[in-house]
Amino acid sequence: MSILVVFLLALFFTLLGLAYVKGYDMVKARSPENLARFYLVMAAIRMLLVATGALLCIILSPNREDAVPLVLTYIIMYATMMVVTLILRH
């Protein structure tokens, strides 16, 4: 697994986390009663993006055995991002 791939994955999850934190602040300031709806929509978007990324990684990889560690890293990074964003905003 190349350093560039890990960097791009970290950047992807940083951007997803940043979008969640900024969106949470905006919804909390303007319409706090919609925070639960915002969380559910963002969770669905993040899950869809992560699942699509993992699937594309497996499909586009020339060697499926090499793609498994990358996808596992991808899923672990997703779980870490979820924990960090929940700690930051709850």
Description:
The chain is mainly α. 89% of the residues lie in helices and 0% in strands. Helix 1 packs antiparallel against helix 2 (35-60). The protein is elongated, with a radius of gyration of 15 Å. The chain starts with a helix and ends with a helix.
Keywords:
mainly alpha, single chain, elongated, 90 residues
Summarize the structure.
By secondary structure, this protein is mainly α.
Helix content: over 70%
Number of strands: 0
Structural class: mainly alpha
Approximately how much beta-strand content do the residues carry?
A: under 5%
Secondary structure blueprint with pairings:
Elements: H1 3-30, H2 35-60, H3 64-89
